[in-house]
Structures are given as structure tokens and as C-alpha cells.
Amino acid sequence: MSSRSTPRPFGVCGEIKVDELTDFSRLSRWSFEKNSSPELRSPPFKFAGPLDCRLVLHSRGSNYSSLYLEVLYTNIVKKGSYLAFFSFTLENSDHSKSHSRDCISRFTAKKPSQGICKFARPFALTNPDFGFIFDNSVKIIVDLRVLSEAWSITGDNSSKKCSWTLENISLFTDMLSSYQLISPAFETGDCIFRIIVRRTKDDSGDYLGLFLDSTETDISNKDLYTTCWVMFKLCIVNQESASENVYFDFYGRFGGVNKFGDYTKMGQSKHLDWPKFIGSGFLVDDSAEFVLLIKVIEERFSQSLPFHSRTEYSDERLWEIKKFATFKDTLKKRKVLGLSVESMRFEVAKQAFRLVIYPRGKSSQSSQQLSFFLEVGENFNISFDQSCFVSYELSVIHPKTMDKSIRKCAVGHYSTRCRDELGWTDFVSLGNLFDPSSGYTSGDTITLSAKVLLLKETFLEGNAEVEKVGFPVDMDGESFYWELENFIYFCDSSDGISKVIRSPDFIFGRQKLRMGVLCALDGTIVAYLLRDLPVVENLGDGVPLEFECKLALAAPGSKKIVGVFYKAGDYAEMNPNFVDCVERGLGLRDWLESQGHQYIVTDDKEGPDCELEKHIPDLHVLITTPFHPAYVTAERIKRAKNLRLLLTAGSGTDHIDLNAAAAAGLTVAEVTGSNVVSVAEDEVMRILILVRNFSPGYHQVTRGEWNVAAIAYNAYDLEAKTLGTVGVGRTGGLLLQRLKPFNCNLLYHDRLKMDPELENETGAKFEEDLDAMLPKCDIIVINTPLTENTKGMFDKERIAKCKKGVLIVNNASGAIMDTQAVVDGCSSGQIGGYSGDVWYPQPAPKDHPWRYMPNHTMTTHISGATIDAQLRYAAGTKDMLDRYFKGEEFPPQNYIVKEGELASQYR
User: Fold this and answer.
1) What is the pLDDT of residues 399-438, one digit of tens each?
2) Is 788 marked as a binding-site residue?
3) Which of 56, 198, 531, 582 supports an S-S bond with 68, CB 3.0-4.6 Å?
4) Which segments constitute the MATH domain (predicted)?
5) 863 has binding-site annotation
């Protein structure tokens, strides 16, 4: 083993030493002086023959420093790609605290740099207290290993043979249980694939696994939705006897991403016993070979319904498959039965579908038939039963004479609980389909068609669930709720036949039941209850059933109100006045439903598939809170066609795009003053906690420590200190009143002076110039609302104008502060302590830098959420809703936006 030091060229930092372990593995040591630069680069060094590398340390603000291994571009071009394992270790003076992260990646011309995004906190690399600095230097050890490989491909774009030989696999066997070896990427059909090798250990044994993967498509500028149906064989080659080769056959539809339900990985995790792989001719001279045979269906999938005829609830699709007879004959030659070919997915009213055919029948009994089905896609991110009622027509198209096309129509109900098939096992005989005189396979191409009409429905079981949607429950038994959103359209599209619509099945009294609706041609609508066979056999007719059917139509003038609150769980039952939660919904449900309105409450507010998104298009009123904010963006406002009123239960509208709301002519209002007492009292508490250095003392006790000096050296009285509030308003005024008895020097800055009576009562002095007030203050409290003018108001420059060691309390808005400037101020001592309950964004992510900065006493957003405040803003919300329903004005101070006009302080 040899070691060498690389000369330091211009523009790099520190020095690097490389120990050569083998031809394809190195141990590198990079040391550099403590440095706060945003990017540091090591000297370049040789690694694994011609491979030139260097290390790059990049700081992303205060959150994390990232460490990358960068391969020089020219070397990648020569070979195409390299697979390498690298382990980074940040050395600590206490070896047990050294920080290590590792990764295995393939370097390509498009991705010449790979590494760890969140390697270490930047302050740990500059502050000696963390133990990562030796003699003013930082030391990083890098364990690097490169795969020696041979790669070959033969064939065309629809059919390929790939051979991948790993020539030094022993370097990676110790990590194959945690990491996977990834082959070079190759393109087949419209997708980009890789072979993956990994090791699996469990209670049943130790195995080698082999997979085909279609993710990480980095060699072509493809759209995200690339998809193709493939049939492939994965083989582990026995280098001593070809008859001992181990292979498996697979098939399915792959995609670049899996959000459309396509596979992104398929294979066998237990392809071969690991001991057999090691000692039975598969591994020879540290070399193993893997072979892939892959064939892609050539197809074209398109929407055939004219644009002017499309609706949200209907769609038509054409699916052309080329070389279909050849493909069927291949299956017959291989004696493959029951193989299915799936089309691309398509959506009708956000419900996913795809077409599925079985070229040689779905089973051995139907091997002479083409089986044809409409498959309903399932959302695996939700746990409840999903269902849909569909009218569909499946066809094999005659390319020359449309009247000769084979068409079959049906209606059906699909449920994840029952998974009824929609389609036909014996759609058409293969003899008829492939008869040259029939003309269905023109040029060995078959064309399939599907027409889909979806009934948009909601089905709820149980009294509790039915009550949530505002439907009265007055029976001693159980209630079931079935809502048909496009009922009239579905009946009108009956194609000249009466339509029987059935609900999802449900269980009651040992019986399997369904609700049914008959849409007759004469316009008659008949509702009924249908009993299927008894659920449990040999129970006869079960118990007698008493049931009630109601046909409910929305009353004129009724509104859909949606409230977004946090879930309280068991805490909701601990206090009957705890109303600001999903379980209580501000106590508005009985009152709203008695007025004929629909009231929906949820805590699910983030992402395109959240519960709130489902109601955005048709809600009339949205109630939100600052404590669990639902961000009302311009995009959401644009889609909310019925929205007229945005209410904040409490005070604060940081989560609402006020300009977009004004442009849409909406009204935005809050319950002004409902929690000012709560917030002002909370601010007094936070001031005392910071002044008395309370938090470190509390944490001493919880850790079992006792060190008075560590607390007392930085603890002060509040008396005689100078405190300034930025903004007054109701909260600031109450704060100044409560601070008066502490004999502080009180200052305030606002657009306007306080009422003279309040100014005399508190003794507070007006400061017209904010920047002139800041250097005078030992303590600063933020009480100004968030506007375009106050957003980011306290940036690095303004904080620098404050007194060294200033204490800051902010219960107004996290966005008023420059996040990074606060972190830097707390780290440098410019800010002696920071406390508050407001963040940006909210809820604060786990890696929000304020969670980890020194000298803070932050909490979740709780200052205005006391039980007393909840009762006040619940009553205020009810009052404004009542005024809205009656067409009356709100109290003037509650308006933030009034029918499109912003309040003056927000302009």
C-alpha cells in the first residue's frame, strides 16, 4: 500500500493524501483549514487507473453542508459511466462522535458529481466546540471503490440482449445487503432501463436478487411519463456449465415514474441462494455475469373522442398493437398461458383506468379466446374502500368496415372490497380474430377501443359518517349515504336503454345489500333496496330488516362550508370547551346543518390529493386557523369557482394570498381581537423567560445537572430595561399595559401614534424612526401584521442595527424575519435570545434551522389558542357566518379584504 500527496493547484483548499488499497479502491484523506466559504474543493487526485476525481464541500445556508465526489468530465466521456461506492467520514476528536455517511452511485456525463446532500451542519465545521476541528483544520476520510465491469448490447429498439459482467464483485459483497449494484442505462421502446443486483438476507436464508429497473432516467431528455409494456428474462450465468444457468421470466408495463401505476422495478429478490452463487460456478475469479433478454410491445395509445364532445365523466381511447399475431405465436411457442398485456393508464373524473387483454385467454379453459377487460386503477395511499360505477363499451375495431367491429357493452360496479371484473373472458375467438378473411389484423396490427362513462359517487357507511355530511340520522338502526354527483348526465347518456345503477354493497343484519336506482326511458326514477345472497351460509333469510330510503336534493341557498383544523385525538375529550379541532369543528356543526348547510371538516390540507383539494371546486366558505394553516394560494383561489368568503378563526391571514383574493373579488375576514389577551400574556411570559435565562436552567434540571453559574452569568431583571414594540395594535397596547408595573423604559414604533390616553397610561414613547429605536432597546417585541412592506423586515442589515445581545420576541409572523439572518444573529451573539410561536412556513419542517439554532425558546403556534381564546373566536366565526347568510355587514375591524378591496394597512 502506498500513499502520496497531490500538489495543490490554484483555486482549491487544503491537501489530500491517497492510500492505494487495490487497483480499484482507495482511502483518501482531505484536510483543510477552518473555512466559512460556501464552496470548498479538494485538489484533484487519481483514482482507479485513469479516473480523476476531486471532493467538493458545498454549504447550503445554515441548514446543511453537502459533500460530493466529482469525476472529471473527460474521463466519463471515454468510458461512458462508472459505478462507485464512497463512504465519507468527518473526523471528531472523540472518535465515537465521528460522523459517517455513505452511498453507491453511477457517474455519467450528465451526473459527474454524486454525494451526500445533508452531510453535516455548517456550524459544526466552523465551531471548535463540536470537536470536528483539529489544529484549526477539518479532516474528512473517504473510502472509494470503483466497479470494474464489461457491458454489451445487441438487438434493435424493440428487442435486446444485454450482458453485464462484474469483474471485481468482492469489493462490494459486504455492502450488497444495504446497497444495490446498478448497470449502465440503456433505452428500449420509450423507456430507459437498468439491471440491478442486490443481496437479501432474512430468516429464510441468504440470496442474490436480480431486477429490471426503469427509474433514474438520466441519459435522455424524456418526458416524465415514458411507458412501455415489456416481456423479459433475467439470467445469472453459470460460467462452468451453461445448463446450470438460473433464469426467470417476467412481464408488465414499466414507466419512468410509478405515480401512474406502472412498474418501475420488477424481478426476483431470491433469484439464487448466495452460498450457491459463491461456490457453484457462478462466481469465477471474482467475476460474475448477468444477461437480460427483453422484448417491447410496439403500440400507439390515443384519445379518440373529439375535443368538443369530451366531458369530465367520459372518454374514448384507441389502442393499436403492432406485430400482434407474431407476439401471440411467440407465447404459444413458449406455452405461455394467462399472460396479460396492459395499456397505458388514462383518467376519467380523476379515476384511473387501463385496458387489459389476454392474447391467449385468461386461463387454460379460455386459451382459444381473446380476453378483454377494463381495469380500474386503485389509489394505494388511502385505506378506505374505493368504488365506482361505470358504463363501458369495449371493441375490436375492423380497420376497413366499422360496422364489422366487435363491440360489447355493459355497466358494472367496481370496488376494492369486491374487485368485480369489468369485461369478458371470451370476448372473441382467436380463430375468428386471426382469420385472414376477417380483416381484423391489418398488417399484423390489432386496434382496440374503449368508451367509458363514469358515475361520480360518494358512499358512506355508519351514522357517524353520514352525520358528517349533514344528513339527518333519526333511526335506531344504521345509516348508509349514497351521493350521485352527475346523476342526471349519467341517465341522459343512456343510449336509448333504461339504466340500473347500483351502489357499493354493504353488510347489515347478516345480509349483503345494495341500494339501487332505475332510470327509466320515460323519466321515472325508482329507488330500491336489493338483497344479495346471505353473507353467512345456512342462516336462512337472516334477521328481519327495517330500513328507510330517502332521496335528498340540495335545498336552494344552501352553502358548502369547509373548515380546516388540527386533529386533537384523545385530547378532544378532555375538555368540552376545546373546540378548535377537527373533532369539534368550532362547535358549528349542529347550527350549520340546522340551517340546511353542508359542513365538512378536515385536517388534510397539503398536496394535490389531500381532502381539502377535493372540495376546492365547489365550496362556498373556507374557515382556516393560524394554528394549522391551510395555505390559500392564487392557484387554489382560481379553481374555487364558488368561493365567496375566507374566514380566519382567530387573528392572522399570513396563509392567504390576499392580492389573489382581492383580484377574485372575495371577502377575507378574521375575528379581530379574539385572542389579543392570550397573545399579549404569552409575550410577557417569553420576555421573562429570555431575560431570566430560564430555558438553560430548565434543561439542566431535566438532564440531572446542577450548575448555577452557567445560568446566573446571563440572567437579569426586567426592571429598568428598555423594551420596544414594533407595531402596537390591540396586542401591543395590552402588552405595554402589562409591562408598566415592571418599571421598564417602554418605546413603540408604528405608522400612527397611540391614543393619547393609552400613551399616558403606559408611559410609552413614540419612535417615528424604527432604525433609530432599535439600538436603544434591550428587548424588541414584534407586533406588526405581515404585509408586502413588513415581509422580511428584519434582515441581516436591520438586525445589525440592534444592540449587541438584543432579546427578540415574535408572535406576529415568522415571515417578518429573515430566517437565515435570525440564525446567524443567534449564532454570533448579535441576538442574545429569540422566542416566539410563529414560523415560516407552518407547520415548520423538521429541518427548519430555527429548531437547531442556539439561544432560542421557540414553540409551536400556541400563543393565541388558549381555551378562552378558542371560545371567543368560535363565537366570532359563528357571528360572521350568520351575518353572511343574512347578507349583513361584518364588524369593520374584521375585514382584511372586503369584496375585492384590501384594507388600508395591507395595501
Assistant:
1) 888 889 999 988 777 766 555 678 999 999 988 988 888 8
2) yes
3) 56
4) 25-144, 159-294, 314-452
5) yes
